[in-house]
Structures are given as structure tokens and as C-alpha cells.
Amino acid sequence: MPDEKKPAFAGNITADDVAAEAGVSRWTVNRAFRKDASISSKSLEKVRIAAERLGYVPDLRAASLASDRSNLVALLIDDFANPHKLVMMERLTRILRREGWDILLVNTLDRADAGHALLNASQRRVDAVILIGIQFDDDVLDTALHARRFRKLIIFARTSRNPNTISIAVDDVHAMREIANYVHERGYRRPMFLAGPRTSSAHLLRKETFVDYWRQHFGSEPETVAVSAYDPELAAKVVETTLSARKKASLPDILVCENDALAIGATDVIRHKLGLRIPEDIAITGFDDVPQAEGANYRLTTYRQPLTDMAEYLVEVLDSREDRDFDRLFRGKLTVRESA
């Protein structure tokens, strides 16, 4: 019985070995591992089979040095108490990897760390930096833009006033007007808006849109209260402090929450600390449609962000070599459940 050919240690296998195994040129092997290269499906399959048999892994660092692109993006993220961050991270990383982009993931701890992380990313030859969080104010962005070595600084799921960034976000203005109209149509007349932290650059437009729209169209001023972070436990404490001393007649008839993290915390305290019913005593709406929102404990009326469409567009932005305005707002969908 003839000896079967066994692959050598992968680190010793070269593109020449793969070319010989596949019966193609070394040039074809190199093209097979480049994202943008033109290669026939037949040749690509030959190279794939040969590379798998031999255990060949291309040297991506060497390939990137020979090119003006690394196909590496830095993803800077914070605020992990907010469950929607995990949903966004899963969706983004899955779609980016599918499209040939590698990810450097950085958990930014606070504002000072955010600036350091941005500068550090600029030294690692990434093609773009994607920011998902609340720590990135104008000073931090300006510092990163001044020192950057990456092509694009992308704010994901928030809008930015900084002209040198790219914003890919849901259309908060359209969404909050839709929520305000729904709330009014359902007969609620005493809304309280539960807002998250305010930031000076990359931020949401939900609180100001809801309050202004309600005032202009329905003739009253909604109450507002703010939480310092998108944390369900903090939201629960703020709601308990705000509502616990009130008589039933002076309570809001609905809490409109800036996102689902706040709505989840509010739901828990309203039911289990204040002893009130949802939606009979106080209704609740959220924003994001995290997985917990449809669970039996919450059944939360909320607004679903089109994360897949937003992530697919992000890949288009990364792939493009054009110099133009890439900012884009997306429209999501109001998802009605029993909480309101």
C-alpha cells in the first residue's frame, strides 16, 4: 500500500508548494487569497483544496505590507451593561468576517481610555476604526483624526456632528415621531421620557425629538428624567426614586425609554418595587428590540434597528475607495407588544 502524502508543518508550506499541488502558477495562488482579485471559480477551488490538504495559511501581514490595504478594522466598543451592544457586536463581526475583514476588538473603559485606544488603533495599520459607544466626544475624535493613519473613522448606530467622521445610524427623528404618534393614538396623555447619558458629539436624537414633537403636536410638555449610563440597574434606581413618593393620580401613564436597557430596568422596578401593573398602571416603550424584549417577563413594545442592513452598508463603505459623503440614516420598525 503506497504511503499517503502527509502535509508538512504549515509554517514550512509556501505558495510555491500550493501551486505545485494544484497545478497552477504561484501568481494564481496569491490571487486566490486576495479579496478583490479576479480568478476563475475552477482555479479558486483547485487552490482551496490544495491549501487545505497541505495546511497552507497565507501570511496576511506580508500581503498587507505589499498592498495599501490591511483588511483589518478596529472595533472600539463600550457600555456592555447595555444588551444591545452585544447584539450589534455579533452582527457586525459576523458580516465583516464573511466579507473578508478581520477585526481588532477593543473594550474602551472610560473617556480617557477611549482616546488612548483610538491613538493605539492608528498605530496598528488598520484600514478603518469603527466606534460603538458613548465615550467618544469631540475632543477625543479630534485628537484621533489629527494623529490617524487610518482612512475612515466610522460612528456606528449614532450620528456625529464631526465632519470628518462617517455616521451609519437609525433615523432617530423618524423613529421617535412614529413612537410619539403611536403613544398618542393609544390614548396616553402623560408621558415621561427616560433618557440616557448626553454626549457632545456622537449621540442620539431621541429625547429632544420626542419632547419637541409632543409639545408641538399634542400641546403639553412631557416630563423627562435621565440615567447616567445605559444600565438596567441604574435605570431601576432612577425610576424608583422618581416615582415612589407619588400618588397614583400623579404618575405618568407611559414611560418612553431611550433604549431597551432602560426599559428593562424600569419594568423590573415598576412591577417588583412599586407594585404597579404594566400596562394598566404605567405602560412602557423601549428602543432596539434586544432579545429579552420579546421574552415573557417584558413583552416590550420597542423599535427595531435594521442592524443587518446597517452592517451590510458598513462593508460597502469599507470597500469603497471613493471620496464622498457616506453618512446614511436607516429606518427601522415599531414592534408592538403587550407593554404598551
TrEMBL record:
Keywords: DNA-binding, Transcription, Transcription regulation. CDD domains: HTH_LacI, PBP1_LacI-like. GO terms for molecular function: DNA-binding transcription factor activity; transcription cis-regulatory region binding. PROSITE patterns: HTH_LACI_2. Residues 13-67 form the HTH lacI-type domain. InterPro entries: HTH_LacI (IPR000843), LacI/GalR-like_sensor (IPR046335), Lambda_DNA-bd_dom_sf (IPR010982), Peripla_BP_I (IPR028082). This is LacI family DNA-binding transcriptional regulator.
